[in-house]
Amino acid sequence: MTSPSYDILAQITFGHSGSTRQFEKAYFAMAYPASVLILDNDPVTLLALPEMLTTRLPDVSVRTCYSAITGLDALRDTNYRVVIADLRMPEMDGLTLLRKVRQVREYTPVVVMSGVTEWGLAKRVVEAGAFAFIQKPFERVQLAQTVRLAIQCSELREQVRFGKRRLRRLSELLRRATSSPLLSPALQEALKRMDRESDTGRRRLPG
User: How buried is 32 (Cβ within 10 angstroms: 0-12 exposed, 13-18 middle, 19+ buried)?
Assistant: First the structure.
């Protein structure tokens, strides 16, 4: 039978933590392949855009929704890497949709499209929280590059969140280990230094 202190050290050294493994499994299941949700009430766009994206981004899976309401329901069920939405939809305007998406998935990038030509529109959309604004009719290469960049930003943010969670777990385990009377003073001091370093690393990670 192993001692509690040995179990703690094993978790620190080898990462044998059920909660950590579950988080890793969920993270990688979400990251590959990258999934994109398209919201548009134009049937032509809903047919053409997925084909264009999967041709230029073969690692991407695409789901389409014809309304903002059904799109938000889909977003509650699945953590899509990117949302592409038309600015003008029957149930709600694009700025309202942006706010709703933030309420459901705070960190999901939203690319807004619109055929409306209006001075200052792109600026207002981006200031409202959109990742990017694309003017219709869109240039295919530009849209594909924008979606790729949004996916990369989404994955990077998730990796940062994953790293911060692992650092918090490490810090917790180190504090438990340093309080064990079964460890030598030298090992306790080494673990305290590791704890301080893990706290420093967690503070340096961007939010």
Answer: exposed
Complete domains list, the chain, with CATH: 4-16+159-204 (no CATH), 33-138 (3.40.50.2300)
Give the amino acid at 91. E
pTM of the model: 0.66
Q: For every one of its 207 residues, what pLDDT tens digit does the chain have, with 9 covering 90 and above?
A: 444 444 444 444 444 444 444 544 444 444 457 899 999 999 999 999 999 999 999 989 999 999 999 999 999 999 899 999 999 888 888 889 999 999 999 889 999 999 888 888 899 999 999 999 999 888 889 999 999 999 988 888 777 766 666 666 666 666 665 565 555 565 556 556 655 665 555 555 455
